[in-house]
């Protein structure tokens, strides 16, 4: 009769013909039009489980997929966003002319090339529901879910809603949460709701809105984030009629990173970006009074402002340490891992939350974008059997407006003795000029992903005695600064000198004692463009 | 002002003219810890090379690997000429994800760090010539000092 080719349960004849024991079960597949199996939204098992959906996690996912064909990778993040890069949130996004930038999160660089802060668009990913079955595997991102408990013995985690996911290999890349000042924590709701702890997309959107609607913003903190935000807001301050104040306990911007003379010079640059900079400022208390947030400093100075941004550091997220039985480092914070980024069998940690053993430079924890990429990649390699230690030294950078920028590598701590070799900057040396010339894409891309220039070779030869350098006025336009520990270079800052990172990396890797650092500086050809 | 622990040297172009006498340690090309460019010391392809962008890890990663491997190991006179089916499969896959593998010419030489941009597509349909631009760019990357990856 041709009825068997397709009939539905509503077909009375079909219902009669089914044995009664099957009446409550789904009809046999051959007798029905195809029924989709109901897969759960959250897969029960993930061969590769990555906790955290930031830069390190994404880098690991990519690395795993490159090395393990058909790998099934599940990223679990408590954010509502797919993995994205952070540096533009305090830099490029603020320089965009596009009024819809807070929606699109795209930005055009100096050379006209545009990109999104998201590492990949949604079409790159597979849905968590199909992760276990999709041909060739893929990367799935489970958003708005927090891993609250880790059962290492059972190789599984539990989410806040009770769902369990088992794993074979697990990466913890939970990053951190911005620190706050105790005085603000204690200051009450009126102050706290006028305070931004800046880290995520939503913080950028909120602060951007504030910058258009309010008249005064004060940034507390003089490090990378605080200074970058100050410069970004400062540039807009004239157009917006916005007062931008930045305050911090150090003597100058980047005071913990740059030697004093350079920190002072940098502070003057920040001021030129339209920022009122208050140095040697220790906040004593914060209150809300007469429609303004009042910040009182220990020396009696008072700042009255509409909104506060606290950029005073990051607290690494180690919430899973207890349930997982993982060690937390008491010196640097974060999960303690070995040189291969492993915490325990089948558990690795990468990014801001990882306190790792650096064979060259000793145990450390690094909170920079490129480190997240490098360590995430390495963790992914080791999760797929590589067993390689942290070796390729990550770098970092900062731009203070479009005219001053630097790249750095290694341990860059202003407490260390330094040797700075400087020349005079030309218009060719600014970050804007660099990207125009090289066209290698935005500065926020990981340096490891750009095609770098060739390493300058060392040429052993007769050393001519250099003429005594002319004493210039304090103009530190362009140069190289070496940071020393026991006479060995452990850190390098390239000051308005770009595309030289490979040689800097090489010098750190060698770990040699150099008698004359001016000779080492020659390797950078700082006078060339 | 006296910066005791921070030395400052100003140098002119002439000061830096003479070649440096600083010595660098010779690199071991077979160092197992080092990142490598596109081709590993064993001759195999390093799918994790940043120079590939995300080509080997995205939804068409499998097809990309098959096509590129075929090309890499091809000993035909016209290299990769026996790989046309693989490249066709790769292109078919990539066409399903125009967001990830844009077909326009705007892609520059280096794969960008984020988006899975394909190497610049040729206007003709000869699949064997597809990897040429990527080979050029990755060859450049591959011969770089290991530090570039």
From TrEMBL, chain A:
Region entry Disordered, spans: 1-38
Entry's localization field: Cytoplasm, Perinuclear region; Mitochondrion inner membrane; Mitochondrion intermembrane space; Nucleus
One GO cellular component term: mitochondrial inner membrane
Any coiled-coil regions, as ranges: none
Keywords: Acetylation, Apoptosis, Cytoplasm, DNA-binding, FAD, Flavoprotein, Isopeptide bond, Membrane, Mitochondrion, Mitochondrion inner membrane, NAD, Nucleus, Oxidoreductase, Phosphoprotein, Transit peptide, Ubl conjugation
CC cofactor: FAD
Sequence ranges assigned to domain FAD/NAD(P)-binding in this UniProt record: 49-375
Single GO MF annotation: FAD binding
Signal peptide (from-to): none
A Pfam family matched in the record: Pyr_redox_2
One record GO biological process: positive regulation of programmed cell death
Catalytic reaction annotation: A + NADH + H(+) = AH2 + NAD(+)
InterPro entries given in the database record: AIF_C, FAD-oxidoreductase/Apoptosis, FAD/NAD-bd_sf, FAD/NAD-binding_dom, FAD/NAD-linked_Rdtase_dimer_sf
Positions of the Mitochondrial apoptosis-inducing factor C-terminal domain: 379-510
Assembly notes: Monomer (oxidized form). Homodimer (reduced form). Upon reduction with NADH, undergoes dimerization and forms tight, long-lived FADH2-NAD charge transfer complexes (CTC) resistant to oxidation. Also dimerizes with isoform 3 preventing its release from mitochondria. Interacts with XIAP/BIRC4. Interacts (via N-terminus) with EIF3G (via C-terminus). Interacts with PRELID1. Interacts with CHCHD4; the interaction increases in presence of NADH.
Protein function: Functions both as NADH oxidoreductase and as regulator of apoptosis. In response to apoptotic stimuli, it is released from the mitochondrion intermembrane space into the cytosol and to the nucleus, where it functions as a proapoptotic factor in a caspase-independent pathway. Release into the cytoplasm is mediated upon binding to poly-ADP-ribose chains. The soluble form (AIFsol) found in the nucleus induces 'parthanatos' i.e. caspase-independent fragmentation of chromosomal DNA. Binds to DNA in a sequence-independent manner.
Family of this protein: Belongs to the FAD-dependent oxidoreductase family.
Protein name: Apoptosis-inducing factor 1, mitochondrial
UniProt organism field: Electrophorus electricus
From TrEMBL, chain B:
Alphabetically ordered keywords of this record: Disulfide bond, Mitochondrion, Oxidoreductase, Protein transport, Redox-active center, Translocation, Transport
Any one GO CC term of the record: mitochondrial intermembrane space
Localization per Swiss-Prot or TrEMBL: Mitochondrion intermembrane space
Residue ranges constituting the CHCH domain according to the UniProt record: 60-96
Region (Disordered): 97-149
GO terms (BP aspect): mitochondrial respiratory chain complex assembly; protein import into mitochondrial intermembrane space
PROSITE patterns referenced in this protein's UniProt entry, alphabetically: CHCH (PS51808)
Main location: mitochondrion
GO molecular function, one term: protein-disulfide reductase activity
InterPro entries noted in UniProt: CHCH, CHCHD4
Keyword Metal-binding applies: no
Keyword Transmembrane part of the UniProt annotation: no
Protein name: CHCH domain-containing protein
Species this chain originates from: Electrophorus electricus (Electric eel)
Lineage of origin: Eukaryota, Metazoa, Chordata, Craniata, Vertebrata
Gene transcribed to yield this protein: chchd4a
């Amino acid at each position: 009769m041709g009825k068997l080719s397709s009939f539905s349960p509503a077909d009375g004849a079909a219902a009669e013909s089914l044995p009664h024991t099957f009446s409550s079960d789904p009809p046999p597949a051959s007798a029905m039009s195809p029924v989709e199996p109901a897969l759960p939204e959250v897969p029960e098992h993930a061969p590769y489980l990555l906790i955290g959906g930031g830069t390190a996690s994404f880098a690991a996912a990519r690395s795993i997929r490159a090395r393990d064909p058909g790998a099934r990778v599940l990223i679990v993040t408590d954010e509502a966003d797919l993995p994205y890069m952070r540096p533009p949130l305090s830099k490029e996004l603020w320089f965009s002319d596009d009024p819809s930038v807070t929606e699109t999160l795209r930005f055009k660089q100096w050379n006209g090339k545009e990109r999104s802060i998201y590492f990949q668009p949604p079409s790159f990913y597979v849905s968590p529901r199909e992760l276990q079955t999709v041909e060739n595997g893929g990367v799935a991102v489970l958003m708005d879910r927090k891993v609250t408990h880790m059962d290492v013995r059972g190789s599984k985690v539990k989410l806040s809603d009770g769902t369990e996911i088992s794993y074979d290999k697990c990466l913890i890349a939970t990053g951190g949460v911005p620190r706050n000042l105790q005085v603000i924590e204690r200051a009450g709701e009126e102050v706290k709701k006028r305070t931004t702890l800046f880290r995520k997309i939503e913080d950028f959107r909120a602060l951007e809105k504030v910058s258009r609607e309010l008249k005064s913003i004060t940034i507390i903190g003089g490090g990378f984030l605080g200074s970058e935000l100050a410069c970004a807001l400062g540039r807009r301050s004239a157009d917006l009629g916005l007062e931008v104040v930045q305050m911090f306990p150090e003597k100058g911007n980047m005071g913990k990173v740059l030697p004093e003379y350079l920190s002072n010079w940098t502070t003057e640059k920040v001021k030129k970006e339209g920022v009122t900079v208050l140095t040697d400022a220790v906040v004593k208390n914060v209150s809300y009074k007469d429609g303004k947030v009042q910040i009182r400093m220990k020396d009696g100075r008072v700042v009255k402002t509409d909104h506060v941004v606290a950029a005073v550091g990051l607290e690494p997220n180690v919430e899973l340490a207890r349930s997982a039985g993982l060690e937390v480092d008491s010196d640097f914070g974060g999960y303690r891992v070995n040189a291969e980024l492993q915490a325990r069998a089948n558990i690795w940690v990468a990014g801001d939350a990882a306190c790792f053993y650096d064979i060259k430079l000793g145990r450390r924890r690094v909170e920079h974008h490129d480190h997240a990429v490098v360590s995430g990649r390495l963790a992914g390699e080791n999760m797929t059997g590589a067993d390689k230690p942290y070796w390729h030294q990550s770098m970092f950078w900062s731009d203070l407006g479009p005219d001053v920028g630097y790249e750095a590598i290694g341990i860059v701590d202003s407490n260390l003795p330094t040797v700075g070799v400087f020349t005079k900057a030309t218009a060719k040396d600014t970050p804007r000029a660099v990207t125009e010339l090289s066209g290698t894409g935005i500065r926020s891309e990981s340096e490891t992903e750009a095609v770098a220039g060739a390493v300058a070779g060392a040429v052993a030869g007769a050393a001519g005695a250099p003429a005594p350098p002319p004493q210039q006025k304090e103009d530190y336009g362009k140069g190289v600064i070496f940071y020393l520990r026991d006479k060995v270079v452990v850190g390098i800052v390239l000051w308005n000198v770009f595309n030289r990172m490979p040689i800097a990396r090489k010098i750190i890797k060698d770990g040699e004692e150099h008698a004359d650092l001016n000779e080492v500086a020659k390797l950078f050809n700082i006078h060339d463009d | 002002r006296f910066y005791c622990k921070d030395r400052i040297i100003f140098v002119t172009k002439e000061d830096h003219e003479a070649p440096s006498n600083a010595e660098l340690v010779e690199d071991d090309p077979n160092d197992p810890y080092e990142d490598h460019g596109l081709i590993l010391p064993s001759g195999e392809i390093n799918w994790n090379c940043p120079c590939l962008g995300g080509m080997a890890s995205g939804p068409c990663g499998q097809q990309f690997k098959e096509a590129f491997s075929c090309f890499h190991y091809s000993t035909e006179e016209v290299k990769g000429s026996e790989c046309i089916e693989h490249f066709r499969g790769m292109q078919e896959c990539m066409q399903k994800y125009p967001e990830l593998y844009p077909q326009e010419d705007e892609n520059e030489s280096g794969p960008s760090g984020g988006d899975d941009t394909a190497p610049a597509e040729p206007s003709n349909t000869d699949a064997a010539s597809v990897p040429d631009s990527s080979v050029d760019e990755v060859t450049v990357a591959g011969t770089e000092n290991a530090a570039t990856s």
